[in-house]
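Input record, target 12 of the design panel.
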């Protein structure tokens, strides 16, 4: 892992980006919203991940030209807050059953 570069801009690291000085400086320099991934639903995050993976396979890694959606995803994708799951009893039961029977969090 190269410690001179910022953390990848993915939902997993959203809560920890401000703790890394290089990442915090990169975010400030690029005007990144502090809670960018919070407004995305899980389904929308999965769609974005799949889109990035589709672009990654034909990518010429030897040339190293990084696309803007990798370094500045907040300019490429917009959140759809209406797609965020509501914590209704149906949602809670569904998640509980998935966790119990499949073991998926």
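The sequence produced for target 12 reads:
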């Amino acid at each position: 892992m190269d410690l001179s570069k910022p953390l990848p801009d993915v939902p997993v690291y959203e809560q920890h980006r401000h703790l890394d000085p290089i990442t915090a400086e990169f975010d400030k320099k690029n005007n990144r919203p502090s809670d960018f991934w919070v407004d995305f639903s899980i389904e929308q995050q999965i769609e974005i991940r799949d889109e990035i993976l589709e672009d990654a396979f034909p990518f010429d890694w030897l040339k190293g030209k990084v696309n803007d959606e990798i370094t500045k995803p907040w300019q490429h994708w917009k959140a759809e807050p209406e797609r965020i799951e509501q914590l209704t009893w149906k949602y809670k039961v569904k998640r509980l059953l998935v966790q119990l029977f499949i073991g998926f969090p």
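DSSP finds five helices and no strands in the chain.
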